[in-house]
Amino acid sequence: MLRSLIIAAALAVSPAALMAETLAITNAHILTEGPAGEIASGTIVVRDGKIIAVGAGVTAPAGARIIDAHGGIATPGLIAIGAPIGLSEVSEGVPETDDSSTASDLISAAFDVQYAVNPNSLAIPIARLGGITDAILTPGERRSRETRSESLMFNGQAAVIDLGSSMDILEKTQAGMALDMGEDGARRAGGSRAAQIVILKGLIHNVRDYEKTKANYDLGLSRALGLSEPDLEALIPVVEGREPLIVSVHRAADILQVLKLARDEKLNIILEGAEEGYMVAPQIAAAHVPVTVHAFEDLPSSFDQIGATLTNPARLAAAGVTLAIENPSFYTGARTPRIDAGRAVAHGLPMSVALASITITPAKIFGVADRIGSLEAGKDADIVVWSGDPLEPLSAPTAILVKGVEEPLRDRDLDLRDRYMAIAGLKPAP
Amino acid sequence: MRFSRAAAGIAALALVALAASGAIAAKPTADPAPGKTETAKPLPPGLDPEANPDPYPSTYHPAPSAQVAIINADILDASAPEIPRGTVLMADGKIVAVGPTVMIPDGAKVIDAKGRYVTPGLIDPHSHLGVYPSPQVEAMSDGNEATDPNTAQVWAEHSIWPQDPGFQHALAGGVTTLQILPGSANLFGGRSAIIKNVWSDTAQGMKFPGAPYGLKMACGENPKRVYGSKGRAPSTNMGNVAGYRAAWIRARDYKRKWDDYRAKVARGEKADPPLRDLQLDTLVGVLEGKIRIQNHCYRADEMAQMIDISHEFGFHITAFHHATESYKIAALLKREGICSVTWAEWFGFKMESFDAIEENDAILQRAGACVTLSSDDENLVQHLNVEAALAMAAGNRAGLAITRPEAIAWISLNPAKVLGIDDKTGSLTPGKMADVVIWSGDPFSVYSVPDQVYIDGNLQWDVHDPVYPPKSDFMLGQPAAIAIAGGAS
Prior knowledge:
Number of helices of chain A: 15
Distance between the termini of chain A: 51 Å
Number of helices of chain B: 12
Helix content of chain A: 25-40%
Shape of chain A: globular
Largest sheet of chain A: 8 strands, mixed
Oligomer: heterodimer
Radius of gyration of chain B: 23 Å
Structural class of chain A: alpha/beta
Largest interface: A-B, 58 and 59 residues
Radius of gyration of chain A: 23 Å
Structural class of chain B: alpha/beta
Helix content of chain B: 25-40%
Number of strands of chain A: 16
Order of helices and strands of chain B: HHEEEEEEHEEEEHHHEHEHEHEHHHEEE
Largest sheet of chain B: 8 strands, mixed
């Protein structure tokens, strides 16, 4: 009996925790992204998966394993937003491996990416080598390969994962409810955005009604509410303002409509995309609505973003808008969010804001800043040591910790590299 | 020197045209055929594929350019060691001199590039700008004639919308020359167009004078998905290969018929010309070495099959595009003299890109094979310098010691070789076109942007001057028409 309890207790401890140890990263130029700011040379002490001390005067405890940063920069692990890391193995060519969206007619708001996360995805170590230790998984645009008659509005619910090597990587579920507006949203409302907002307001009203009269609903006495029961349930925290509505929107006029909708319906929202956000930046800032922008987007790729520009992040930040940088693409977003942040710097974003936009700011926006996003005592030890400036393409991680576990600097790419360098007679890396 | 070379080129073209038309074939060379010379009348316009090999000629004529000396620049060229503080002198649209000490002629405009960098104008050998323009609306989605697996008869230049605002964005990223390709839906997608990234209201006004044509071919998943889903061939890789072979057989047969016809005409015999076939004209252009194969192909094993097909029918493949697995067969590609046109980072979006690695370019470089980067994307084309930096860094982490000039060559000289224009552009070599970028800082830094871009010696982009570049008609009057000029300042 006692023995089986001990075994049960051991099994309940995650592999990551089992591997955790006391570590000290010394001689690091620490960009904490927290209250301690920048520490020119200091030490970070990690125990049981958590940061227990950070600072210039901190010394490594006796017996701690030392990772000497040799003066290199240490940052919080980067947070990727939007790329379907762990949700999609071969994003386009093998749709059966892509769980980032659904075309089902039965489920919309209740779609929840948490159930599809694959901790063994090969994309996880690949993204980790880009210095990413955590990811916000946002459901993609609803697919409509066969049916052109889409009527369900919501893309579903986001989750936060870490990119550690354990099987337990979910950090937060129901981190946000994704909704497309603009052209993409209009398509689900018969082809006009003039219909979509009216329908949305009706649905929000129905969710509130449902919440108050569940007993009648269960008895079948409710009027038609336009959504399935799971969808209605999933929207309750959204209409109560407890879960953010992540609104994908591009055109300046649509952004203003979304801000008004949020105000009228008392919703807590995040603007996603917002390519023309700079045109209405004062209004976004005044509404205290955060924005996740794709720093790559600068073309009039649709009539929704005729005014797209690489200066959008800089102009939003200058207006006081809370800004995170996202990259929804699977095949670039898994590796290079840091490059996207650097690109925004090239077009006017202050360096300090750029690093925050891929660390502490997304943590705050998605409600996980109590655990990740900065190097502070008590937070998860998600830490990257860099060979140089983390936003520069010539730099790379030299050490990566996820939840206090030092991850190997390896992925499948490097296995292929080493095999074929040997075949080509090229000397493999030491 | 430069002008005389251009003139020689035109003369050579004219000779080809003359030789091709029946007109001079009547000149007795071997068999005088007395009394029969008048039978060799030229065919009516359009019926002889060789009578007018350039029916949609370039109308791009660079404006006269002044002498410009860029001084105190870190010169990072594709074919020479880096010069930490040097001068680039341009005149009459050409590079005149490059070096640590260059005599600056009186009257030359001097640009002090202290702390800044100069590179050749960048070249994107795989672009769909103009054929898949912004905005991406169905009305202008003209890049894939996906109605038949063989559309070698279509020409990308006939789909190019010169008002695509993407051209100006690419210019702001330092791109001065592009190969515009048809898409990859078909086994044979059609002819490519090589263009200079200059504003024009016609495609002809952008065409690179004297550049050879390319023929887009595609391996693998795209053609078999597009046609297999329509319930027709090809639906498998073996169906793809059968489709290529059938086409080359017809091309060889067509060429034989024209050769027979011309031989008969040359002998003064009566002969009926074959009916001209635009599709087969293009394939014959490949067989005759005039048109360059630009082959979308990801997997190493598929590339090896394509190479055998080229041996079976006697043509050369210039480049494999995307080529995500080229690193697996670097020695074969070197032996065959085939370039790989790659991405630095893209991976895993299809099975055939599942084995894409960041070190592809560096491994090919060290194995002695030809390699370039490319965008295939209207956003990525604006950041080719960062792509080169990422690929170089990955190679150097592997201990492959990629040099900075080698990495710049991936986005300048090597793509010029792929396009067959390396005698004209792609490096800062005296006599070549003055296609030049002045960068705000090290081009391998994400923080650097082109300050100025020159094409044929003419300033086309200046980050500090809102008159550059001339805007697309589409962007005129738009609420955010100033957006493109909002670079780093």
